[in-house]
Amino acid sequence: MLHEGQEIILYGGGIRCIAILGKLREANIGVRAIVDSNESRWGEALDGIVIQQPSVIGQNSDLVLCITVKDPKEQERIRDDLQGTYGSGSLKEICYEDLEQEAALLIYRAKADQIDFTKRRPSIVFDCTSGLGLGGIEAWTKGLCSDLLMEGFDNIRILTDTGDCQISDKLLDIVDRAFDKERYRSKKQKLECITSYLIDLLPVVIVIGKPEIFLEAAVLLRQAVPDKVKIISVVHNGEEKIYGFYDQYREYTDAYVGVSEDIKRDLVERGVPADRVFSITCPVPCDKVLSRGYTVDVSLPIKIGYAGRVVVLQKRMDLLLKVIEILENRDVSFCMEIAGDGPYREEMQRIVIEEGWDKHVHFLGALDRKDIPAFWKRQDICVNIADAEGRCISKLEAMADGAVPIMTRTAGNPEDIMEGVNGYMVEIGDYGDMAEKIKFLARYREMLPKLGLKAHDTVYPKCRREVHTAFWVKLLSGELCGLKL
Question: What is the three-class DSSP state of 39?
Answer without folding.
Answer: helix
